[in-house]
Amino acid sequence: MRFRFIWVGKTRDENWKALQDDYLKRLSRFVPCDIAEARESPKHDTLLIESQRILELVNPKTHAVLLDVGGTGLSSHDLAAKVEKWQNLAMKEISFIIGGSDGVSSAVAERADDRLSLSFLTFPHEMARVVLLEQLYRAFTILRGFPYQK
């Protein structure tokens, strides 16, 4: 299994970037990972153009998980159980999609196999990236019985 993270734009803030890189490195000990960044749309472009850029980065055979405030909220242990289920089903690739500041089009939402909510709160995108990576790392430590999650 491998994880692919698809999001809009680069992580510009050096503090968020350092945390992102740290958790990506930690997570990569358990599962191969890569990041695909869709180019941010200029203000005059539409949500559809940005969403099309996202869809171009989604492998047709991947299991796509859209990060969405309306998605299913999971505890860390529930997320660990979901990761374990994906492993048991021998899924080759899981793609986590974080849309831009205006969200995603209905085409991206329809492509998603799962919708996951990190919180009822709204986070800046750079923070959401770090929270996602940290929670996936935490899920693996739960599955392996590592002391990190305590």
Largest sheet, in brief, is: 5 strands, parallel
Order of helices and strands: EHEHEHEHEH
The overall average pLDDT, rounded, is 93
Provide the low-confidence segments as ranges. none
Q: Label the structural class.
A: alpha/beta
What number of domains? Answer: 1
CATH hierarchy class name: Alpha Beta
Strand order of the largest sheet: 2-1-4-3-5
What would CATH call the homologous superfamily? SPOUT methyltransferase, trefoil knot domain
Measured distance between first and last alpha carbons = 26 Å
How much helix, percentage-wise, in residues? 40-55%
Question: Strand portion, in percent?
Answer: 15-25%
Outline the structure in words.
The chain is α/β, with parallel strands linked by helices and 150 residues long. It has a single domain, classed as SPOUT methyltransferase, trefoil knot domain (Alpha/beta knot, 3-Layer(aba) Sandwich). The protein is globular. Helix 3 packs across helix 5. The protein has 5 helices and 5 strands, in the order E-H-E-H-E-H-E-H-E-H. Strands 2-1-4-3-5 form a 5-stranded parallel β-sheet.
How would you sum up this structure in a few lines?
This protein has helices at 14-27, 47-56, 76-88, 106-111, 125-144; strands at residues 2-8, 33-38, 63-73, 93-98, 114-117. By secondary structure, it is α/β, with parallel strands linked by helices.
Task: Give the helices and strands, then pairings.
Blueprint: E1 2-8, H1 14-27, E2 33-38, H2 47-56, E3 63-73, H3 76-88, E4 93-98, H4 106-111, E5 114-117, H5 125-144
Parallel strand pairs: 1-2, 1-4, 3-4, 3-5
